[in-house]
Amino acid sequence: MSYDAPFAGLKVVDLSQGIAGPYCAMLLAQHGAEVIKVENIGEGDWARTLGTRYGTHSAFSIIGNLGKKSIAVDLKSEAGKQVVWRLLKGADVFLEGFRPGVIKRLGFDYDSIAAREPRLLYVSISGFGQTGPLSERPAMDPVLQAYTGLMNENRGEDGIPHRVPVIVVDMSTALYAFQALSAALYARRDEPRGRYIDVSLMQAATALQSIRLMASYLDGSTIRASGVFKTADGWMTIATVTDRDWRSLCAAMERPELADDPRFATLAARTANVAAFYAVVEPAIAAHPWTVWSERLTKARLMHERVNSYADFLDQPQVRETGLIQWLTQAGLNREIPVPALPGMPRQAVGTLRGTAPATGEHTAALLAEHGYSATEIQKLIAEGVVAAVA
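Predicted structure:
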């Protein structure tokens, strides 16, 4: 155990699929835990099938499985279930992301596992939670963006609610699950038993919107301290948080008289007169290119930035200087790919466990051997289709 690997020595069995659960377990692996990814035989975790396929990988499965070991098991067979029970012996953490009721039918519900491993921490990740009228409904990120109001808040100028495309609900669910689990691991040092941790996409999406949701409830308004504007050669965002910021923007636009216009003099006034505000600011910003605005607004010490594409972003000097992006190779891809460095963690390196996402069943034979299966038993399990291994 060290600052670089605070979870070294922990054993994690990960039956989750998709994004939220796998990303949470990936963070555990990056912090030093041994994470065993239990996948279906064949396609494996269905995240591997999302978007473009690269061998057994997709962008989703690479990011969600860095640092893990993969074993492919037929969970519907009794022999396959016995394999999982063997993997669970001595485990510290178990993650599942099935719809409520499914994991119990498989025989790996919290009560069943806790009876054998009483100090284990059990994490269930679901769409709408374990109870309630929507609990058994299948749900992914876009569904929860719609249900919790996030889409409605993200309206374009066309008035249409839009989905945030970066699976923000799944990713935030993973982060909330990771923080809850990390706190539980700390507390478990003085606890005789483990515990059940219930995290849903609905909870995470709601928590993520706490401030905006509360502001809307209290007075029906939403806070608008920034905006996106078209320049002469692209787009940029400008944030005017304080009234002093607004006065500085007026000077930068060479429209100082607007600073004392009662429609815009305060944030409340600008929010109440948002249509008039944009009618004034938009043509002023559109009159000049990004370089002009960057020079003016930097001098005025106003928060601003050009709206970049991902390609533009990856090429930024600030990104290169800070080592924000690691360029790693993965099986199935014939080129390096950009993997964001994890905040507060050591960098991942090409060819290391932390920097590699496994193929489905890549570690099947090795994991079975580590858990007491003989070479003959392993070959028999493979031949009977109970497990599958990468040739």
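Summary: The radius of gyration is 25 Å.
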